[in-house]
Amino acid sequence: MKPKSILKKSTNSSNSSSPPVNPRDQRNLDIALHHARLIQQQKDAEAQILEALEALLELPSSPQADPAHPSEGDVVQFKSLITPFQPSDYDSLIEERHAADLCGYALCPRPPKKDKLGGKMRIVPGSSDGSPARIVPRSQLEIWCSEDCARRALYVKVQLNEEPAWTRRGGLGTDISLMVDQPEAAHTMALPIRSKKPLPEDLVQENMSQDMAALALERGEKPTSGNPFRLLSSDVAEKMSVKPPVAPGSHGKNDTSTHSAIEGYEPKTGKPPIANHKVDEDDDQDWGI
Amino acid sequence: MSEEGGREALKLWRVWRTTRQMCRDRGYEIMDNEIDVSLDEFKHHYCESNGYPDRKRMAFTLRPSDAMMAKYTDPPTPRHPEPGPPAIGTVFVEFNGDETVGIKQLRTFAHYIDEQHHYTGIFIAAGKISPSALKIIPTVLPAILEVFKEDELLVNITMHELVPKHVLLSKEEKAKLLERYRLKESQLPRIQTTDPVAKYLGLRRGQVVKIIRKSETAGRYASYRWAI
Ligand SMILES: [Zn+2]
């Protein structure tokens, strides 16, 4: 026999463990279980990422591997391991590879570049593809074996999903592409940008002329002087016939101006090569080096 | 001998001594004359001819004293009259000079602890420790990994006059305390295992420490904390 309770009878049945469960208790239980499951999912995902991170410290499989031409097996492994990563996890990976004295790009077997000179900053000379010279902290350079690997790694990073793996719906995310998958991209600093649709052509034209006008104003250029604004004005559009029209967003085979892409779209106003050159020069001055 | 090497030796001599004091205070077997080593003697044993200390040579292993083992043994109960083995064993201490300590270094260390059947491994890093590396600590249980930075051990915080004495209670003492005050352990005030003194003593979750303070008005008084 159960001891008789001296407490007042509450409206909630006190023996809630017996079968006909109070609907409110049931709902509370469901909510608690739901949250417990979410926390468990998060823990599992974090454990999986830590495991993947450790596995990525073992790549590439061969010490003779070439980061420009990784082996099929390594690529498959790399892509599947990296998919649940957020950009911050990727930063952790780079940090871990550095601690293990490996180049930050996971498909590269070389040690990071180290120079014995002191000082905090380094000047990186501009390269032939038009990227300007830059001044960067030395610690940032000593993560990679070469500038190429820095680009390869960055190329992957920008494709990573910023949403944590445990809240992603419909699978873990899109397929990650490597720089080697797109040989023409290896020569430019253009990065694949996730999920940005190109603007309609006429809207771009309009935005462009507005932007160029604003730029000319900022630079104190008169509309009459020979400046990019005038070169980009409508009469130049006649020369579109120089090249066959290319769909917005797609890369022309011989195109070298990919670095001027705006949010994944490359303005194609049919500028004659000389005008193109002029714009580049102005860009350089804009950095004020 | 370079000046820089001399400075490094002085720093590591301090860190090494604090580490050994810490092991003594936890209850491992070590004589005072094995701790109070002069700087010259330290240099003689652990420094190279260029004056720089060699961290690899500074590693050491200690056994728990009988008193320490008793403290970590479950008290016999009517249901379990034969207490199991103590929850403590040998400790291995390693000094690492890498600029950054990542997963790789800690995994190697954990592997060594496991291979040599040490109960606890204490890893003392000269450089910074990556956040991911610390995440592997719970994955290597039952081996206990503890990570310190050299800077944390430059001085012995427990010797500071404002730090009260912390004493770990045995399981038996803890049971008696709770019984005497009719408390559940969760009703005690808490101390985090990441607290500097808790870290110094290697406190584990669920253990209780007695904190003895001196007071001008009340003489000495004790309080208790439950480690979480
Ligand atoms: Zn590399």
From TrEMBL, chain A:
Region (Disordered): 1-27, 219-289
Protein location: Nucleus
Domain spans labelled RTR1-type: 80-169
A cellular-component GO term for this protein: cytoplasm
Pfam families: RPAP2_Rtr1 (PF04181)
Reactions accelerated catalytically: O-phospho-L-threonyl-[protein] + H2O = L-threonyl-[protein] + phosphate; O-phospho-L-seryl-[protein] + H2O = L-seryl-[protein] + phosphate
Keywords: Hydrolase, Metal-binding, Nucleus, Protein phosphatase, Zinc, Zinc-finger
Function as written in the Swiss-Prot or TrEMBL entry: Putative RNA polymerase II subunit B1 C-terminal domain (CTD) phosphatase involved in RNA polymerase II transcription regulation.
Name of this protein: RNA polymerase II subunit B1 CTD phosphatase RPAP2 homolog
Organism annotation: Coniosporium apollinis (strain CBS 100218) (Rock-inhabiting black yeast)
Automatic annotation (TrEMBL), chain B:
NCBIfam families given in the database record: PRK09570.1
Pfam family, one: RNA_pol_Rpb5_N
The protein, known as: DNA-directed RNA polymerases I, II, and III subunit RPABC1
Organism: Coniosporium apollinis (strain CBS 100218)
One cellular-component annotation, GO: RNA polymerase II, core complex
Keyword line: Nucleus, Transcription
Domain RNA polymerase Rpb5 N-terminal, first and last residues per copy: 7-112
GO annotation (BP), single: termination of RNA polymerase III transcription
Compartments in which it is found: Nucleus
